[in-house]
Amino acid sequence: MNGDDPRLSKAQRLHLAGELEAAESGYRAMLVDGPAGAAPRHWLGFLLLQQGRLAEARQQLAQAVADDDGHAEWHFNLGMACARLGQRDEAIAALERATARDPAGYFYWTNLAALLDEDGQREPAEDACRRAIALDAGRPDAFHLLTGLLLRQGRYDEARRSNAEGVLAEPPQRAAPIARAQALVELGRRAEARALVEDWLNGRPDHPAARHWLAAFGWSETPSACSADYVGQTFDAAAAGFDATLAVLHYRGPRLVADWLAAAAIAPRSLRTLDLGCGTGLIGAELRPFSNELIGVDLSAGMLEQARAKAVYDGIVQSELHDFLAADERRYQLIACVDTLIYLGSLDGLFALLAPRLAPDGALLLSVERLAGDDGDYRLHHSGRYRHGRRYLAEALGKAGLDVAEWREIILREEGGCPVEGWFVCARHHDES
User: How much is the pLDDT for 375?
Assistant: First the structure.
């Protein structure tokens, strides 16, 4: 019995048409032992696999390849059945046979890579990913698998590049133009990135995001801060899903503040506290137990709507931070400014306004993203956020009359699975004693 048997062709047509019961009956009517029945047995096994009838699918597929082991696709389907049954060793062996018989099978390699990775076989898994990429660099699957492998090995520079390649291999409609431009910049393909962004910006040259991203990609002068319009529009749009997004990024801000508060042994409900750039109130939830008065300030109305729902603040103010500090006359025992300075480049003006608002015995908690090599004051990164040099940060605090009391190297969040390095700082007024 071969592929030209009209009964097999009829059963396959029924199978393709979704008439699975009739197709199954047709396949079963042709089953015989040995090579003559191998093809209908394989297609029966494949149908059973599609229906999730895994044990029987595995049995039929195993018998089919035992009778005729020359078909890569049959070994692949057997491997898929074994994998779904949790029989990883058998699945790996079947997929290795599939790749041996057809080395040009892209998905044979990617599925083999995934199973090898699950089995802890890092080098063979990486080799399988790279073989798939060599076959078709226009598909994202192998890049994403490779990115995960590299991340788990701490090979972050390679992982960022692999992730960028994966973004570019996705269908264009799957990623925003800015995300594609960021990927191109990551890969050093700046001319292509510029062409893409300029095309996206065509007709909207005065849009706040347009001005921001031109600067972030280095094609216009770096501003001293993100514009209020850009920050407001960006966070209003992101507000509803913001907490969930930060959870995916393993955002550590709340944990850093909670740990500092616990170590400081602060009495419950003892502090007047200011949460600058409070967002949806994630930091405020950690500050609440220690605060007799807690004020949250943010530019984004959408973020403040989420913060109000948490009911952790005594007062909420929608304002740009400089404007709020210039108008406020209160003094606070604790001021938190966590994951906020990444939208400001120059910090001198903010710290000059902030220092008078900090009580004589008060503490300022802040975080920044680290400027690699500390080779400058600040830089607008192609992530769209500012990074600050350590020396600059200390000097800016010092000019405002504040000293660094505690300095911690941290991972603030992840981006594309890679750690975003930063600093968590506690600053206080100069000790005049």
Answer: 63
